[in-house]
Structures are given as C-alpha cells and as structure tokens.
Amino acid sequence: MLAATSILKSPAFLALALGLAVAGCAKKDKLPDNSGQLGLNNSGGAAAGSQEEFTTTIGDRVFFETDSSVLTATARQTLTGQAQWLLRYPNYPITIEGHADERGTREYNLALGARRAAATRDFLASQGVPRNRIRTISFGKERPIAVCNDISCWSQNRRARTALTAPQG
Amino acid sequence: MFSTLQKLFVTLIAIFAFATTANARIEFDITRGNVEPLPIAIMDFQGDKVAQDISAVISNNLRNSGLFKLTDKAAFIQKTLDVGGRPKFEDWRVLNVQALANGSVSKLADGRLRVDYRLWDIFASEEVFGGKRLEIEAKFWRRAAHIISDVIYEGLTGEKGYFDSRVVFVDESGPKNKRVKRLAIMDQDGANIRTLTRGSDLVLTPRFSPKRQEITYMSFEGGQPRVYLLQIETGQREVVGNFPGMTFSPRFSPDGQKIVMSLQQDGNANIYSLDLRSRNTTRLTSGAAIDTAPSYAPDGSRLVFESDRGGRQQLYVMGANGGEPKRISFGNGRYSTPVWSPRGDLIAFTKQAGGQFLIGVMKPDGSGERILAEGFHNEGPTWAPNGRVLMFFRESPGAQGGPKLYSIDLTGRNERQVKTPSFASDPAWSPLLD
C-alpha cells in the first residue's frame, strides 16, 4: 500500500502520466478526417446537434496535399458529411479556417490558406449550405496544430477547419 | 578624385563589371571571393566612460560590416593621441594598420556631448578628411557612434554606410502552436529594443516607410486580417484602405506616398496600390493566381512581385502602374519574397530548392543569380540602406524551433546572427535616419 502510494506521487510516475497524456493528444491530432464514415457515431457520447458531435463524429478538418487546394476524395467525403450535418442544424454560423504548413513562405501561405478555405466553402455551398452562412479566414502558416519536424506533422497542418460559432436564433 | 586609401581599398576588392549605375562614385561589388578586410585601428576616444562606449560601438559596427579588420588595442605601440595631434605613422605602419580613427568626447554646458574625431590614412601620412565635430544629446550617444561609423565607412569605401538605421521585426514568444507575435523595433546592431504592439493580435510583415517614422504591417485584429499603418512615435494606427477581403504583404513606395499590397479575392490574390493622400486604389494585377510580395524599384518606375501564374512561385517585373509582367526567375525551384535593392542593381529573394530555403540575389533582368545563405529555412530578406548587406530570418526545425535574425553581406561570407531577446522574424530595415 505504502509503496503504491509513493510511486503514484513520484516524479517518475508523473512524467509517465504526462507522457501518456501528450501521446494521447498527438494521437487525437492524427485522427483521420474521414472519422465520420468509420461508424464512430456518437461514440464519445456527444449530444446530437452539438459542436462536439460535429468535431468528433463528423470531423471538422480536411487535409490537403503540398501546395494544393484541391479537395481529395477523403476531403470531399468529410465535407459531404459536414454539409448534411450543417443542413440538419442550420443555426450555426460557420467560419472556415484555411491553413498551410511551415514549408512555404509567409505571404504565399496566407494566400494558399485562403485558397483552401475558398475551395472548402465552395464545396459546402455546392452541397446546399448557404454561402452567406459561411465566412472564411486564412491563417497561413501561423497556427500549426502539429509541431514536429517531419512530413507527418506538416501534412496535418495543411488543413481547412470548419469552425462553428455559437448558434443563432 | 579618390583618396589613396580608397584606391587601395578598391584594389583589395574585386571590381565587378556588371554593377554599373551611372552616378556611383566608386564601382566595386563586394561579392563572393577576393574580399580582404582592410586592417584599421580605432583608438579609444579620449574622455570619460561614454567616450569608451562610443569607441566600442564604432569598432563593433565596422567589424560587423566584414569589410574591416580591427587591430587589437593591446598591440598598439602609440597608446594615446590627442585629437589635435598627428599620429606617429611609423608606429602604425609596423602593425600594417591602413587607417586610424581617434577622437575625444567632452560635455557641453547644456549637457550635450561634443565629439571631435579624425580619420588617418597611415601609408599616405595624411588625413582622409579634416577633423569632424558632432554635438548631440547625451542620451543619444549610441546614435553619435553610428553616425561616426557611417562617416568612417564612407571615408574608407567611398560608399554610404548603414549604421545609423533601425530594424523593425516580429518578436515571437510562446509555444509554436500558440505563438504570440509583437512588432518590435531596435537599432541595426540590436540595441535599444522596444515593442510596438501588445501581442493580443497576430501581426506579420512590418515594413518601414522610406520617408517617415511609419510602419505598414498586417494584423489579425478583430479577426479580420488587414493591412495597417502605424506611427512609430505616437503609436497611432489606422487600417489601410477599405477592401472587401484580406489584405496582406504591404510595402511602401519609395516616396512613402503609396502602399502596395495583396488583396485576397476567393482563391486569388491580386496586387493593389493605395495612394495615402488621395486614398485612391489602383488594381495592378488580375487573374487566377496568387500575386503577392510586391516591392518597388528605388526610382518607383517598376515593381517586382511573386506569382504562381506559371504553376509555381516565380518572380515577375512590371511597370508601377501595372501592365504585362515579365518573368525574371528561371532557375530550378520556387522564388518568392523579392525585394528591390535601394541601389537598384539587385533583387534579393527567398528560393526553395532541394528541400532548402535559400537567400539569394539576382539582377532585375534575372541574370547573375547568386545564393548567399543556405539551409533548412531562410526567409524574407531586407536590404540595409546602402544595398550592401541583407538581413533575413532563419527558422530552426521542430517543436522547440523558431526564427532568429541574421545579416549577411553580398560576399555571402560575412554572416552574423543579430541577437534578439527571443525568437524574431520578418525583419525590415529602415532607411538611414535623418
């Protein structure tokens, strides 16, 4: 008993726990953007129509190839799911954030992020989401979500995120 | 026309045929190879501690330029020299010192500093220029040192210096995925640093006005990324123009009257100029491409910018009022962030090739490309006011990585880190102060 208590409080255990937590975060960041198609329906217990459901079940992000704003098949699948959800819950205004990875120059990446946001918006609009519900913004390479120095991180940062703001009406 | 010393200096440096502007006094280009720093000596100026401090700043400036080799004070044979006296030339020739500067600092009744100084050509046994005097408020003693550094630099090279100038940049703190960015300003040697924005909003790409104490930059204030104008002394800010989308990548025209920038329109970015007096805007490019990073030629007649209209980022030159752009970059890789030299003779750029980000220069017609700095990630060059030195930022990789400022001269050999308190990016050099 005593031994168990002491190990729980030991720095080594804390470091281990922290390490696991960090690893957990990293894993979550790497969730594929087609999670909506993987039968994960409400697995996290998110309430139907909630922002959490949109983020975890539908998937709020799509990813791009290097220096590309072309929507991949996976991205289109995710966005189709997003559009269906957004049409079912029409009270959320949407902001699409376009991002680029760090392997580009600052000014160009701002424009590239905007291009990705625009491509994402156009697809959602083509699925019936009213354009006037959608705002876009580019962060260029300024807001990475993965910060390691290899392609596994850079590919997570080349993204467009559909962010819901507080519901209206 | 030229002093003995200037001639000597020119012979020490490669003469390049291509850098011919009509009104330049001496034609030399301090490019890769053949540069032998000129041995000089700076005697501690006579006076109290500020005299020594001034001498140290002058020595540091001249050494950092890469053009001069400072003789160690411990080796001096002649230990003192009154500002009214003549050096024992033989004592300096023995040390192979080519030029010697000495001076004195005294306090005036009103508290200002008076600095008298002289510059000697040792092998000609004569002064490079007659005795000079400077009077300045005591708190601006560093400026006195920078001004004197510029006079010495010009006396020895025949070209204007760049030491009495400042650099605006982006100070970066916090983790990589939540960076806090503030505008900051410092002297070109890293002294007198202060921040200009509080860090609550993401700020990028500050650029100096060539004429006034003004900065144009991009800010995400209010969740709306737009170009702003900031008065350095008063802190007064305003949005530049009334555009229907994100504006970014601003830069002043050489007369300080216009700001040229990109406007994002759906997936495309086009270049616009805005006249700060009339507020008239002019669209300079159009079409389905990312056109950005515009920079004027020093005479204001042309613009260089980057565009992916040909498939990937390349450099283009067009008239200041638009017209058909002409592509100038044809090497392997992607070219971006072009900046026209204040001398007009070169365009500096970032180049992506072979997984690296490089800093290079080329002539405005695209010929004579030279790479000055290589590595994982170098980006965003800016020119010293005399067009002889570039500053840029170098980003180290990984979660703990971040950008730092570096300067490099046109030889590509004299690279130095410009020390800042934390990570720093997007440097922009001011013109010489008035």
Give an overview in words.
The complex is a heterodimer of chains A (169) and B (434). Chain A has 169 residues and is α+β, with helices and mostly antiparallel strands. Helix content of chain A is 47%, strand content 13%. Chain A has two domains: 30 residues; 132 residues, OmpA-like domain (60s Ribosomal Protein L30, Chain: A), CATH 3.30.1330. A four-stranded mixed β-sheet of chain A has the order 1-4-2-3. In chain A, α4 packs across α5. Chain A is globular and about 40 Å long. Chain B folds into two domains: 154 residues, TolB, N-terminal domain (Rossmann fold, 3-Layer(aba) Sandwich), CATH 3.40.50; 264 residues, 6 Propeller (Neuraminidase). Chain B has four helices and 29 strands. Chain B has a five-stranded mixed β-sheet. Chain B has a four-stranded antiparallel β-sheet with strand order 8-7-6-29, with no helix packed on it. The longest helix of chain B has 17 residues. Chain B is globular and about 70 Å long. Chains A and B meet through α5 and β3 of A and loops of B.
Strand order of the largest sheet of chain A: 1-4-2-3
Biggest interface, residues from each chain: A-B, 28 and 41 residues
Residue windows where pLDDT falls under 50 for at least 5 positions of chain B: 10-33
Would you tell me the structural class of the helices and strands of chain B? mainly beta
Number of strands of chain A: 4
Give the helix level of chain A as a range of percent: 40-55%
With strands numbered from the N-terminus, the spatial order across the biggest sheet of chain B is: 2-1-3-4-5
**Uncertain ranges of chain A:** 1-42
What keyword list fits this structure?
heterodimer, A: 169 residues, alpha+beta, 60s Ribosomal Protein L30, Chain: A, 2 domains, 4-stranded mixed beta sheet, 6 helices, globular, B: 434 residues, mainly beta, Rossmann fold, Neuraminidase, 5-stranded mixed beta sheet, 4-stranded antiparallel beta sheet, 4 helices, 11% helix
